[in-house]
Structure formats: C-alpha cells, structure tokens
Design goal:
The structure holds two protein chains of two kinds. By secondary structure, chain A is mainly alpha-helical. Chain A has two domains: 133 residues, no CATH class; 218 residues, MetI-like fold (Orthogonal Bundle), CATH 1.10.3720. Helices cover 65% and strands 5% of the residues of chain A. Chain A is built from 16 helices and three strands. Chain A is extended. By secondary structure, chain B is mostly helical. Chain B has a two-stranded antiparallel ribbon. Chain B starts with a helix and ends with a helix. The chains are: A mainly alpha, B mainly alpha. Chains A and B meet through helix 1, helix 8, helix 9, helix 10 and helix 11 of A and helix 2, helix 6, helix 8, helix 9 and helix 10 of B.
Chain lengths: 422, 457
C-alpha cells in the first residue's frame, strides 16, 4: 500500500464531513432549544393570561329597597341585602330563611358589587325606591367556573364551588344574565385582596412615576458624564478610574443597588419607604451606566471631520460639542436611553428592598406616596394563593411585556430612521 | 410647596436669561461690539441662578425632615425621655401620622400638641424655603445683570460652569460606588459587632429567623454563610451547565453555518430572550418548569422538591443563553479573517476551522463572557426569590431545595425592617460578600475581554 496524500485525505473526508454535519446539527439544536424555550414561555403566559382579560359579569335589575337604604343614612345602608334579595328572586331553589344557603348566595357576587351599587345610589339618591340595572363582576370562584377552570366532575370536597352553588350559577346562566365582559377593571382598579377586583392602575402609575424620575435624573447625568469623558477629559489615571468604575457599576447585581437605596436614601436621608421617588432614584443609578456607555458610543460614531470643520470656522470646543456633535449623536443616545429605561421598567429586586411590594389599594397621587410598580405587582400576585391571581399574574406580565416591546420597537425605529452611516 | 419652589427657580432662571440677553442686545445695538453673543449673557444669568439654588433647595428638602423632627423631639423631651429607643421611634411615627391627618383612637394630649407643632414647623419651613429661594434668586439675577458689559466674557464663564457640571456628572458614578461600599461596610461592621466574623465566614448553619441560644447578644439565630453560598453555587452551576453549551453552540452556528435568513431571525429572538424581565422568568419557573420537573421526577420515582434548585437553575440558564451567545459571537467575529482564510486554504473543513482555529483564538473573549455570566448568575435575584427555597441546607443535590445569597437578602429585608436588628444587618453582610465576589469576577472578566480585544485590533 502506498497511498498518496490525496488518498489519505479522500479516505478521511467522509469522517470529517460527518463531524461537520454533527457540529451543525448541534448548533441548530441549540438555536432551536432557545426558540423552543421562548415559545413555551410566551405560550404558557398567553394561555394562562388571556382569560384574565375577560371577567364574568352579571346584569341584575335591582330594586333599591327604601326599607334597607334610607336617603338620610347614606352612604350606609344594606346594599348587600338588596343584592341578595335580587338574587333570591332570580333563583327559585333558594330558601330565603336558610342561613347557609343565603350565605352561599352572597358569595356569588364580588365584594365590589355592593360598593358599586352604593356609589351609584350616593351619586343619585333619587334612585332609592326605583329599579336600577347594574352590571357587576362575579366573585373569583364563579369566574373560574364560568371560564371552565373548575371541573364540575372533581369530587365536591376538593372543589371551591359546591354542587348547589353550581346550581345557582346555572340557573342564572340559563336566564341569560351572565356573560363575559372585557375586563377593564384590570387597568382601572388598583390592587385588591379579591382577584376579580384587583387591577394594575396603582402599579402602572407607580411605574410611570418611577420611570419619569429615573429618566429625569439619569438622562442629564449620563449625557453630561459621557460628554465629559469622551470629549473633554484628559487621558489620565482619574478618567481611567472613572471609566473602570462605570463599567463595573453596569455589572453590579441589582439587589446591591437596592441595599444602597435602603441604607442611604431611606436609612440616612430619611426618604419615605415604598415611594416611587426612591424607586426612581435607585433605578436612575442603575440606568446611568447604560446611558453613559450608549452615549459614548454615539459620540464616537460622529466623524472627526465634523469637529474639525466646526473648529476650523472658529467655534469653541463647547460650541463644537453642543452645537454639532451632540445633535448628530442624539438618535443613538435616545436609542440607548430607551433601552436603558426598558431595562429599568422590568427591574424588580431593588424595588422589593425599598418596600415597593406593599399591599396598596389606591393609586399614588405624588411620587412620595406609597406605591407598587408593574414588576413588583407581578411578584405580589405571583405570591398570592388565590387561584384567580395566576391568570392575573400572566395578564400583568403580558401588559409589562407589551410596554417593553413597544419601547424597544420605538428604539429600533429611531435607530433605523435617524441613525446615519458616515 | 416643593413643586412651587422648583417652579420659582425655573421662572427666575428664565427671567434672568431674558433680562440679561436683552441688556446685551441693547449694548450690541448701541456700541456694535460685544465679546460674547447675547445668548451667552442670558445663559450666564440662568446658570448662576439655577446651579447654586438647586443645590440649596435639595439640601433643604433633605435636611428639613431631620431638623423638624429634632425640634419636635426637643419640645417633647419631657415625655420622650423616659421611653426606650424603640418606643421613642414609635411615638414619633404616631405623631407624624397624626400630623398627616390619620388619627387612630384618642392619642395622648402631648402627642396632639407635638403633631400640631410638627404641622406648623413644616409650613414654616416651606414658607421660609420659598422666601430664601426667591430672595437669593432676585439677588443673583441682579448680580448677573450688573456684570453685563461689552467686555464681559460671558461665553467663557458659561463654558466653565458647564464643564464643572459635566465633571460633577462623571463623579456621580464614583459617588455611587463609594455609596455602595460605605453603606455595605457601615452596616456590615455593625453586624460584625453582634456576630463574630469567624462564625459568619465559617459557620455551617444559617437560621437567621429562629432564636437558638438564650441570652446571647445575637440571640436571633445562627449566621454562618457557607450553606447560603453553597446553594448559590449549586444553582449557578446548574445554570451554567445549560447556558454555556447552548450559548456557545448557538454562537458557533450563527457565526459560521447559519443561512442569512436564520441569522436574521435568530438574533432578534435571542435579544427578546435577553430583554425579558427576570420576574417573568421567575413566574415561568414556578408556573411551568418546577411542576413539569416534579411530575417528571415522580414518573421516574425520584422525589423532587417543589422548589428544586434544578428548576431555578435551568430557568436562569435559559436567561443567560443570549448573554453568552452574544459575547461568544462577538469574540468569534473579532478573530482576524486571515486566520480563517489560512485554515480553509490548508484544506480544513469549516467545522475544523471553527473548532481548531477560530474557537481557540476566541477563547479569552469567550471566557470573559462566561465569567460575566457567572457573576450575573450569582447576583440574579428574582428567579431564585420566586423559585428557590428559603431554608439553607448544606447540600449539593440539585433536586433538593436550596437557598441563595440574594434570596436571603430579599427575605430578610422584605416587610418592616429596623436597622438595629442582626437579621437586617445580616442582609447587608451578605450583600457585602455578594458585592465583593461579583466585583472580583467582573474586574477579572472585563480585564480579559479588554486585553483580548486590544490584541487583535
């Protein structure tokens, strides 16, 4: 056997090609794995979250009984009794004298129903003695039943709604009183103990305040620092140190920023707990490195010819930077800022440490009021034992992701529309 | 009041700008010569008003609370003196909430009095603040106006102020680092007053909630951080076992083999994975991954804890895939083309070029990226807070439930906390260790990445 080199190569070629095919297959597998995981993530969120975008409601014609509700005692009155009486008139199998049955019946409507009726009557006391038609949410177990999340075939002891209660529900359903309505409460209500009443209003406003403050602090500070470091700072140990510092800050775990905020902003400065102001300040410290890094990249991308031309016609260094370089770098800076703010919007851990995970049932009026933020609200709901909060958590996540995708889409749009290639 | 104060300052700055600018324009129209453009004269006025007064305003807002509290406490010293520290704080909180209009029950008369005093002091402080700001703004506007002249170098002055502001902005990054270190060191030192350092570093028991020994200074439990850091490492290892191979293989594929269309799709998909907030991953872990693993384990007859380290770790691994993949992609792309061409010209297949030439050449950058990912895994909070356990165990079994440093920090600090309790302080000590560990890894990783980049540029 006297093989030439070409023969040896030819013999080994099949094996080497197989190796290449295998590497390719593994690579493709890895990509598909990532795709699959994203797919499962989104699919599981959508499949459990879409149900929270509707809410089972019942439309009732309620006689505002003047014996239960008297104009001179408003806003007090037996609004729950009035509602119960209406239900009894609709469900023949309930005996009004049977305490247990009546109690079960009252659990059918959401706790918010009587307050909705009360607000209606307080606004217009002339309604007393008349019949009003109101649409109120059902309580969580019945909502789950209507959406098919409770299987009537499971043994009664393991079920949150008993057989008679399902009977009441079916009776009302047959009369066409119950339907699925768009769940606007999800956006117009603040948090609540009752899943059917819990909404994101407080969290949305809290997040908006925090992001606004984060932007107001980190945007000017970040741009100022970046301009100084990129355009003015002498290359020496001090500026090197600052640079290393900024790069490190970008990689410090977020929970450490929470500890900083807790010790310094709340412990030493005495700022209030749970306030979006403190949250915004914390997020600003975390966002600043991102903005600085993005701004420096954008400034670097402006060609030196622009600077030289401006200097050549007699502009001062400041005039060159603020009149020419900065406006040209602005799209890049804005893109980086929006991406930084999107990260800040999803940040949870530091907000937990400063107490933005409190249970707060009203939306904040000022940035000093206690509030939650969107991600901390998700955390609270994910921790809640009630079944109804599972789909609400998914729905809240979908709302959060919508915001994030919108922000990133704006950033991509800005980049593609305004960024110039020199 | 605060809004009004800021509005006043803004109005003063605008007025100063307009006044100076106008005065400069008049001089220019009259003499025809002006050193600086009139806009710079305006800016000079606006900046000399804004910069010092914003500092004054912020300091005022920062300090007024403490000063007012101190004054109120001094007036009520007679009633407060006999109380212990905790009771005194409680009384002050009650006074503050009475002042805010939330009265519970019938408070003692001296508390009502103190609350009234608090309210009056607050409004006094507000009015004084406005008066001081308005008066000094007026003074500064007039001073700036008097400097307007044909020869005044307004531009240089403005540029000097702006440079100063920019230097301040750059220093904020340093202030932040100093603030982190100071806060952590201060609270850690207080923690070490109560718990000896050796117990913290080498103790194998972490039970911050349960008192075990009577009459001990830190009678609140045991504070040995070893089981906690061990748990962190278990979860991080699980995460890296998933993230490193998947991330590297996908980077190799995208860099060398992927058709252009797939690359165009895969990059944004990976970016989406990277942009998903960690709280979402945490929910994903408890909603889907943990139950799936549990039932899979049950079908094999293996007991899996409901909050197994495997669930938290693997979801964290998914989170880190895009991170590692993008670092590796960058590192592979940075290898000079000549190396690739040389290998291909010698007859190597593309796979051989990748595995024997490009990948070894890119190793430093990849290692840097992997180290940064490790630091992220150690510092990652929400996934483990939601999906990992609370009880520290000395175990390396990933099917068991373990806890992590970040979980302990969050659980120790969630809810009402006071700063004189070893439980709270322990969180800061853990934070200190977390900061140090991640800092060392980050500095090391950033140095590798940077050095490597320079080598090929």
């Amino acid at each position: 056997m006297n093989d030439t080199a070409a023969d040896i190569v030819r013999q080994s070629l099949g094996r080497r090609r197989r190796k290449q095919t295998m590497l390719k297959a593994f690579g493709l597998g890895a990509i598909l794995f990532a795709f699959l995981m994203l797919g499962i993530l989104v699919a599981s969120l959508v499949s459990s979250g879409y149900k929270a975008f509707t809410q089972t409601v019942i439309t009732l014609e309620v006689l505002v009984d003047p014996e239960e509700i008297r104009a001179d005692r408003l806003p007090r009155g037996g609004f729950d009794d009035v509602l119960a009486a209406t239900l009894v008139s609709r469900i023949p199998q309930v005996d009004p004298e049977d305490r247990a049955q009546m109690k079960a019946l009252e659990g059918l409507l959401s706790d918010g129903a009587q307050f909705q009726l009360r607000d209606l009557v307080v606004d217009d006391p002339a309604l007393i003695g008349q019949v009003v038609e109101i649409t109120v949410p059902l309580s969580d177990p019945y909502d789950q039943l209507a959406k098919g999340l409770i299987d009537p075939l499971t043994p009664e002891v393991n079920r949150r709604v008993k057989d008679d209660e399902i009977g009441y529900f079916r009776t009302l359903e047959e009369q066409g009183l119950i339907r699925q309505a768009l769940n606007t409460w999800l956006l117009t209500n603040a948090d609540s103990r009752f899943p059917e009443l819990a909404g994101l209003k407080g969290a949305l406003i809290g997040s908006a305040w925090a992001l606004l403050i984060c932007f107001a602090i980190s945007f000017p500070l970040g741009i100022g620092a970046a301009i100084y470091l990129e355009e003015f700072a002498p290359r020496n140990r001090v500026s090197d140190f600052i640079e290393v510092n900024i790069n490190n800050l970008a990689a410090v775990p977020s929970v450490v920023f929470g500890l900083l905020a807790l010790a310094v902003f709340i412990g030493w400065f005495g700022l209030p707990r749970s306030a979006p102001l403190v949250g915004g300040m914390t997020l600003a410290l975390m966002t600043m490195p991102t903005i600085i890094i993005a701004t420096r990249a954008a400034l670097k991308a402006v060609p030196p010819s622009i600077r030289e031309a401006a200097l050549g016609v007699g502009a001062s260094k400041h005039q060159v930077v603020f009149g020419h370089v900065l406006p040209l770098a602005m799209p890049g800076i804005l893109t980086g800022t929006i991406i930084g703010l999107a990260q800040a919007l999803g940040e949870t851990a530091p907000l937990l440490l400063i107490g933005m995970n409190a249970f707060i049932t009203s939306a904040p009026d000022t940035p000093l009021d206690s509030a939650t933020a969107l991600p901390t609200q998700i955390f609270i709901w994910a921790d809640s034992p009630e079944r109804g909060f599972v789909s609400r958590t998914s729905a809240a996540i979908l709302v959060l992701l919508t915001f994030l995708i919108t922000m990133n889409a704006i950033a991509i749009f800005l980049r593609s529309r305004f960024e110039r290639k020199w | 009041m605060t809004t009004l104060a800021f509005a006043t300052l803004l109005a003063a700055a605008i007025a100063g700008y307009a006044w100076n600018r106008r005065a400069a324009s008049v001089i220019r129209a009259r003499d025809g010569r002006l050193h600086s453009l009139s806009g710079y004269h305006g800016l000079y006025s606006a900046l000399t008003v804004l910069v010092p007064l914003v500092v004054v305003l912020l300091l005022w807002l920062l300090l007024q609370g403490q000063v007012i509290d101190w004054l109120v406490a001094r007036d009520a010293a007679q009633e407060l003196a006999p109380l212990g520290l905790g009771e005194r704080q409680l009384a002050m909180t009650e006074i503050r909430s009475i002042a805010g209009g939330r009265v519970f029950g019938t408070p003692k008369p001296w508390k009502l009095e103190a609350a009234e005093r608090l309210v009056s002091l607050r409004s006094l402080s507000g009015i004084a603040m406005l008066a001081v700001l308005a008066a000094s703004a007026l003074g500064l506007i007039i001073a700036a106006r008097r400097r307007v002249s044909a020869g005044f170098r307004a531009r240089q002055n403005v540029e000097r102020i702006v440079s100063g502001l920019m230097i301040f902005c750059s220093l904020v990054a340093i202030f932040t680092t100093v603030g982190i270190i100071a806060a952590l060191m201060f609270e850690t030192a207080r923690f070490l007053d109560k718990v000896p350092l050796s117990e913290f570093l080498f103790g194998t028991n972490w039970e911050p909630q349960i008192p075990i020994r009577e009459g001990q200074v830190a009678a609140e439990g045991a504070f040995g951080w070893l089981p906690v850091i061990l748990g962190t490492m278990v979860i991080s290892v699980v995460a890296m076992v998933i993230a490193v191979p998947v991330g590297l293989l996908s980077a190799i594929y995208l860099n060398e083999f992927a058709p252009r269309t797939l690359r165009a799709v895969a990059k944004p998909v990976l970016e989406i994975l990277a942009g998903v907030p960690t709280v979402v991953y945490g929910f994903f872990a408890i909603l889907v991954v943990a139950p799936a693993m549990r039932s899979f384990g049950a079908s094999l007859g293996i007991p899996v804890a409901p909050n197994t380290a495997l669930a938290a770790g693997s979801v964290m691994g998914i989170m880190l895939i895009p991170f590692i993949s993008s670092f590796a992609d960058d590192a592979l792309s940075a290898v000079p083309r000549s190396l690739r061409d040389g290998a291909l010209a010698l007859g190597a297949t593309r796979a051989e070029t990748m595995l024997n030439v490009l990948f070894p050449a890119a190793i430093p950058g990849i290692v840097g990226g992997v180290l940064l990912a490790v630091s992220r895994a150690i510092g990652e909070t929400m996934i483990v807070v939601m999906a990992a356990g609370l009880i520290a165990k000395m175990t390396i079994n990933p099917l068991d439930s373990v806890t992590t440093v970040t979980v302990q920090i969050v659980t120790l600090l969630i809810g009402d906390t006071s700063f004189d309790n070893p439980k709270t302080l322990a969180a800061f000590a853990l934070g200190m260790m977390l900061f140090l560990v991640t800092l060392v890894i980050n500095i090391f990783a950033l140095r590798i990445v940077r050095k490597y980049r320079e080598a090929y540029d």
